[in-house]
Amino acid sequence: MSRQLQVSVLDLVGMRPGESTGNAIARSVETAQFVERLGYKRFWLAEHHSIRGLACSATAVLIGHVADKTSTIRVGSGGIMLPNHAPLVVAEQFGTLASMYPNRIDLGLGRAPGSDMPTMRALRRTSSGDDFPDLVAELRQYLGDPKPGQIVHAVPGEGTHVPITLLGSSGYSAQLAGHLGLPFAFAAHFAPQYVEPAMELYRRNFTPSDVLDKPYAMVGLPVIAADTEAHAKRLLTTPQQRFLSLIRNQPIEVRPPVDSMAGLWTSAEADAVAARLALAVVGDRESVKQRLQRTVDWLGVDEIFAVTDTYEQADRLRSYEILADVAKEITPPE
Questions:
Q1: Best CA proximity match to 56, nearest among 42, 76, 36
Q2: 10 Å Cβ neighbour count for 142?
Q3: For residue 74, what are the β-bridge partners?
Q4: Beta-bridge mates of residue 304
Q5: What is the pLDDT of residues 31-69, one digit of tens each?
C-alpha cells in the first residue's frame, strides 16, 4: 500500500490591525477544529516574542487551550525555542500537557531566539544556542525514565516520553536531528534557500534510534489554495504585505489583500519578499497539486506544515479544505 502525504498546520496566531488577542486566539481554535475534521495530523503553534501582530508568545498555554477544544488532532510546538527556557520547566510544562491529553502532544524544538536582542535580554536568555545539543539532552532525560542517582526530576514529565522533533532553518539542527535519530522539520516558509542542503545533511547524518529506524522529514511551506488561480494570487498579497512589514521592522498584522502590490514596495523589497516566499504553493486545486507534488518529490518529505495567512477566515479554511483533498493524491517518495 502506498503512503499518503501527511498534512499539518503551523499557526502563528496572526492578528488583524486593531484586533484583540482573544479574537485572534479564537480564530486559531476554530482553525484547529476545522482541520481536525478534515483529517490533518497536527496543529502546531510557534513561539515569538515582542512581535506586534503575533499572539503566540505563551506557546505552552496556547497548546493546552487548543488541545482542550479539540479531541483527536495532535497539538504541539513549532517550536519551543529551547535556549529561551530552562529544560526542566519545558519538561514540566509538556509533561503536564501530555498527562492531560495523552498521546496528543508534540514538542518541536528550535535554537533561534524568536525575538530581537533586547527581547532576548528581557527573557533572561543566557544561551547563545551553541549549547543546544546539551539542552536537548537534558530535556530528553527529564522526559525519559529516571536514572540511578538522578537528583532532579520533572514532576509531571518524567516517563512521559513526549515526542520531540528538531526544527531548523539551517543545517545545524538538521545534523543534530540526524545524529540523534529524531524527526526533523525545516522552516521553508521563511528560509527556503537552505532547505535542500539541510535535508541532505539530515539524511546523510541519520542514525537509527529507539525513536526512528529511518529519517522522517517535514517542511513548513506557505500554502494558499483557492477555487481560482486569480483569487489565490490576490490572497497571496496578504503574506506579501506581512513579509514587507517584517523587512521594514513594522508590525506584521494580517492585512486585507490588495489588487496589486505595485506602488507598495520598491523593486528591492519585492525581490526580498519573493525570496522569502520562493517555495509558496499558491493557486487553484490543480496548480496546488502540481506544485506540491514537485516539492515533495524534490525534497522527499513525509509531511508538510501549511502556513496559510489570509485576512478572511473563510479563505483560510477553504485553502485547508482544498489542501486536504489534494494531499490524498500525493505520495511521498520512498
A1: 76
A2: 25
A3: 42
A4: 7, 219
A5: 999 999 999 999 999 999 999 999 999 999 999 999 999
Distance CA 90, CA 72 (A): 23
pTM for this model (two decimals): 0.95
Burial 173-196 (b: 16+ CB within 10 A, else e): bbbbbbebbbbbbbbbbebbebbe
pLDDT in tens, 166-204: 999 999 999 999 999 999 999 999 999 999 999 999 999
SS3 194: helix
Domains in the chain: ranges and CATH? 6-327 (3.20.20.30)
Three-class secondary structure of residue 280 per DSSP: coil
Q: How many Å apart are CA 215 and CA 149, to the nearest integer?
A: 33
Which residues make Cβ contacts (< 8 Å) with residue 209, sequence separation at least 6? 180, 181, 182
Structure confidence at residue 120 (pLDDT): 73
Would you state the pLDDT for residue 121?
A: 77
